Amino acid sequence: MDNVATTLEASKKDSEDDFYANLSFAEENIPLEQEKVKRKLDLYLRKFSYLERSSHYIHKKADKLLPRISAILKSYGIPDDFKYVAVVESSLNPGTTSHKGAGGYWQFMPATARLYGLRVNGSVDDRLDLTKSTHAAARYLKSLYKEFGDWTLVAAAYNVGGGSLRNSLKRQRKDNYYDLRLNAETGSYVYKIISMKTILEKG
Question: Which residues pair with 28 in a beta bridge?
């Protein structure tokens, strides 16, 4: 695989404005006129592009699994870009677990997994099944969209939880992800998704 950083630099050299103009998430506006937004995008584009060994692994997994994820998301009316959530969450490795107990391709907590129809018990863990867990993720994402009406906020809510995001929006009197002050993980989450999308599509 060519060094993704080289591809990235070549793209930017052709026209920096065109490069940024082609960045998108779920067909919603990215406020690239804000210097802080460009700066954070550059940070994660560079950070992810230099992970050559893991990027090669992710590319191989992505070629195999993302079309299956896309088909399921499409059946629920979920924007295709949300397939990259699974990449950011688990690197498409179902064995990935967090210290909090999240697991599987979509890093569901056990209680949330059960709420959306997955079995998680001593003998069965449907979070490890790509098809079942993606159907559950699509149902969860659809429920979040009913609440927030904005796909970028849906992505943030997937990371931090709907209740927490709702409180941040109300407390800060904002309605836009890019204007919110959030914890470090959620504040970088959408940037990571956009960066992973850009790298996988250009790599």
Answer: 25
How many CA atoms does the CB half-sphere of 82 hold within 13 Å? 32
Contact 50, 1 (CB under 8 A): no
Compute CA distances 78 → 12, 142, 198, whole Å.
30, 7, 19
- Report the run of H or E that residue 108 belongs to, with start and end: none
Over its C-alpha atoms, the chain yields an Rg (Å, rounded) of 17
Residue 131's nearest CA partner among 183, 88, 94 is 94
User: Under a CB-based contact definition with an 8 Å cutoff, are residues 159 and 185 in contact?
Assistant: yes
Q: What is the pLDDT of residues 168-187, one digit of tens each?
A: 999 999 999 999 999 999 99
User: Burial of 199 by CB count in 10 Å (0-12 exposed, 13-18 middle, 19+ buried)?
Assistant: buried
pLDDT at 91: 92
CA distance 173 to 170: 5
At 90, the amino acid letter reads S
Nearest C-alpha neighbor of 80 from the set 138, 136, 14: 138
Residue 127's identity, in one-letter code, is R
* pTM (2 d.p.): 0.88
Residues of the chain with pLDDT under 50: 1
Phi, psi of 120, deg, nearest 5: -135, 105
Residue 138 and residue 120: Cα distance in Å, rounded?
Answer: 18
Under the phi-then-psi rule, with left for phi > 0, alpha for psi from -120 to 50, and beta for the rest, what region is 181? beta
